[in-house]
Amino acid sequence: HTGRRAAQTARRMGTLLLDIALFVSAALLIPPAFIVASKGPIDGIRELVGEDSITAYDEESYVLKHIVFIDCAKNWFLAALYLAAITMEAAAKEKVAILAILLMLLIGAVQVIAPAKESIAPYPSLEGITGNPVFLPICGTQIVLLTLGVLFASPATKKKKPAATEEGAADANDDAAEDDADDAAEANDDGEPTAAKKKKKKRSKKKKPTGTGSKEPLSRLLGGFTDSYVRYGQTEPPTIPVSKLFKADAFPVGEIQDYEGGNAKRVTDAEKRSADRMQEGLWNKVRHASEVHRQVRRYAQSFIKPGLSLTEMCEKIEQKNRDLVEESGLQAGIGFPTGCSINHIAAHFTPNTGDTTIIQQGDVMSVDFGTQIEGRIIDCAWTVAFDPKYDKLLEAVKEATNTGIKTAGIDVRLCDVGEAVEEVMESYEVELDGKVFPVKCVRNLNGHSMGPYQIHAGKSVPIVKGGDATRMEEGEFYAIETFGSTGRGHVVEDLECSHYMKNFHAPHVPLRMPRAKKLLSHINKTFGTLAFCRRWLERPDGGSAAVHGAQGAAQEKYLGALKNLCDVGIVQPYPPLCDIKGSYVAQYEHTVLMRPTCKEVVSRGDDF
Q1: Is 448 a catalytic residue?
Q2: pTM confidence score
Q3: Does residue 66 have an active-site annotation?
Q4: CB atoms within 10 A of CB 147
Q5: Does 232 have pLDDT greater than 70?
Q6: Confidence at 48, pLDDT banded by 50, 70, 90
Q7: Exactly one of 183, 189, 541, 589 is catalytic; which is it?
Q8: CB atoms inside a 10 Å sphere around CB 60
Q9: Which band of pLDDT confidence, cut at 50, 70 and 90, is reported for residue 98?
Q10: Contact in structure between 578 and 492 (CB atoms under 8 Å)
């Protein structure tokens, strides 16, 4: 914190110096411009440069009079620009100063090479710039002051790009986003000895980004490059834990959206900004998990293609998730099993052991996985399709999700979000094999609030009009997700169950089966109240190498015990949710944080 405050002070002083340079430069330009404007070009020049500077020939010079008028107008324009720049943001101030420096240098160059007859004051003769008593004090002083101002103020304008922005997701004009980006930059100044700082600089140099990526996603309607994480010094494929790529408190900020209506004042409210800063530690954990999710899903988008088995896909995603988040049991790891719901399956499907399903060219598959750090879950999903005929379906759901995010906010009624989503979603239709299908909201699926180690924290965000009028509140986390279907828009439980989760408010029930007691103990240690799947129970590490070691924790003959835990209400099964066969369901989802001053779409990336 001491280093951060010192960095803040240094940057403020740099910006102040640039403001002073702009003000002094304006003050230097106004007096000579005023003299020329009030007394005329000839008399004005005589007063500024001296009686001997104007000859009889010069008094009749058409060129002289117009050059002086142009110079006077230039001075007024620059003075006004300098004064206006003082009220601008740091980056804009710097641009104005740089343009002014270039202009002063250009004027100096013109004066040096100007012909003798027309190079009259304030333009020097062939004696050069040093022969002009006006140019050096005014233009020279401006160049020196503005150059110093730019040099000292430039660190204030260098803001780290937020992850959501891996494409600019954070709004650069939002004060809250700027504060977070400033804090990220300030984390480099930690007050350590000079030698330590030099070492840190060397390490940073090794990790310096080599580009912004070059590999195109293999599926439809995804932006950016799948290897875009190389900008942070990540390898391709990603192998370096995300915590090693960013210094403490410097994880990329998500997309910032201002509150609207009566809550617009929160953006500048001093009390709310203070409350927001007090929660910076929590926001940082969430951003850490979000960056892990972004890098894992970008990696997934590089290899998901027709011919890949669902089991291989899920295992690759989950292992990369463990590696990049540095899985450590309940402290950090996977938020829930990787969902890969294909075609008419809307949610809660992941392959059980032995499943041989292969992705086909004509499939529509939603990929939904989570990352958690200290129980704070990032829940984010997108839809994979390879045939352009499904583009309208994907566009409808993506746009509906973005509309839900835009509508959400503190004091917004949940039902209002659903109404906005439905209006957008059902304005689309898709043509498949010559037949037109309206895109319908899956009315019995919802977004939801999230709490620590609790994926469903009690509030549901509908995707159709009507329903709960409960309002969103400050500090809440929401998974805003929408589902669009070409079927009937209603799902039912079907197929073999793979997802399970211990009830957050599970009752204390005496268990008679020893296997059930053993399985419950394993679940408590490994997953707590986070969701899990059967594949994880059958892994050699039982679902967590950090908790049980690499071998010897696989659960055997556990299905009866698992059924017993479900029957008594300790564990809740979540079977796949399906629309009618032959239909196609798409899903997009983001995690949104209701900060005191703004909404932050923490999971936003350059892909969607």
Answers
A1: yes
A2: 0.68
A3: no
A4: 15
A5: yes
A6: low
A7: 589
A8: 10
A9: confident
A10: yes
